[in-house]
Description:
Elements: E1 2-3, E2 17-18, H1 28-43, H2 50-57, H3 61-65, H4 71-95, H5 104-124, H6 126-132, H7 144-148, H8 154-167, H9 176-195, H10 204-221
Amino acid sequence: MGVNLPSMCTGVNILFMNTRAPYHHGDLRNALIDAAAQLAAGGGPEAVTVRAAARHVGVTPTAAYRHFAGHDDLLLAAKEESVTRLGAAMRRRVDDLGPVDETEASVRARLNAMGRGYIDFALGEPGLYRTAFGQESHPMDEDKEVKLADANHPYSMLVGVLADLVKLGVVREEDLEGTCNSAWAFAHGLSLLLIDGPFTGLGEDEKAHIVEDTLRVFGQTIIPPAAPPSIESP
């Protein structure tokens, strides 16, 4: 990123200098996307511009415009990268569980881990999280079939684990979409409360308690455990 130079003598042209080495080769498009993601991480979607990304990489805006038509095009790419990183955060939490099976307890543990990963991302990368869910068009607006085709897309992961609960008889098939929307709304709402709402100023321990308590209540009320099979009297 650029740095401000100290004042210099009158008559000397002051040029904006770049602390990064000039970009000479490689995949410039992906380098610009990465730069846009870094800008978003630091300042949210408002910080993403073609000129800023070009400056960050060390190329001219003209070079950047060969890959992105304008601000909206680059911002969409930054949103796609943000959603990819959100899915990775959710996947890491699931992987931390170790071996899983198809029992109800195991599937619920995966659902809980996905929720934690989602909130981890919002707390750890609020700029990217805001970018992923900005008001402009973004990857979450894609057709459901497109999202479901990517096993690591946040939506695909959520639908997959809830579909397993349908198989176990915990969630009715006709309630799958509504349960998915409820889970997503829960995680998104709690995330916003933690990064932009009344929970923002709380300490880390207090936030962790809120996340733990809310996840527990969500699992018990929105998706109550399956009733144990009845035992018939002889």
